[in-house]
Amino acid sequence: MNPLNADQFATNAVKVVNKNTMGGLDFDWEYLGAPGIPGILPGQTSDALNDLVFLNSGVMLASKSAVVKIFKVLDYIVHMSYDLHGQ
């Protein structure tokens, strides 16, 4: 994902939450392009770099200092890390 698109997505997500007085958002990310998973379309080879950047950002988010910052603004989080390698 283009970093500018990611920033715009985050901005728009916050606007939707605030406008609709929602308690939060739930994102469910499935392994991209894994063959044999019903309902998951195969990814494109060109997506590989974007996937790598996305997964690396997750590693960066998992650092202790980042987690401390995240919990200053969130009151509830569930991080599920299974299925990172597909089936």
List keywords for this structure.
87 residues
Please provide a written account of the structure.
The structure is a single chain. The chain is mostly helical and 87 residues long. The chain contains 3 helices and no strands. It has helices at residues 3-19, 48-61, 64-73. The radius of gyration is 15 Å and the shape is extended.
Describe the structure concisely for a colleague.
This protein is an all-alpha fold and 87 residues long. The protein has three helices and no strands.
Topology:
Layout: H1 3-19, H2 48-61, H3 64-73
Shape: extended
* Percentage of residues in strands: under 5%
Largest sheet: none
Which class best fits the helix and strand makeup? Answer: mainly alpha
Overall radius of gyration = 15 Å
The helix count comes to 3
Helices and strands, in N-to-C order? HHH
How many strands?
0
**Please, what is the average pLDDT?**
70
Helical content class: 40-55%
Distance between the termini: 23 Å
Low-confidence stretches: none
InterPro entries: GH, Glyco_hydro18_cat, LysM12-like
Protein name: GH18 domain-containing protein
Domain GH18: 1-87
Keywords: Chitin-binding, Virulence
